[in-house]
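Today's session is about reading a structure prediction critically. Students often jump straight to the picture, but the first step is always the sequence itself: look for stretches that repeat, for charged clusters, for runs of hydrophobic residues. Only then move on to the predicted structure, which in these notes is written as discrete structure tokens rather than atom positions. Here is the chain we will use throughout the hour.
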Amino acid sequence: MNLSEIKRNLRKFFRGEETEEGRWLIDQWYRSFKNKPNELTEYSSEEKEKLRRELWADIRASTEDFVSFPES
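Below is the predicted structure for this chain, in token form.
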């Protein structure tokens, strides 16, 4: 799974819009860390930072009614 697929599926997951296939892909990606714990080393620092910011924005947006997060 490439970075854009990961981001797309995680966004859907945090919004509660994931499909069964998308959830399966996320689960497979997550489980792959057991065998390849440093998979993100394939991404540049810029890609990692962009992914981190985008994921936090999605997490905040989908949980803002329940949890308050400090600004990053």
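Discussion point for the tutorial: Residues 3-63 form one domain.
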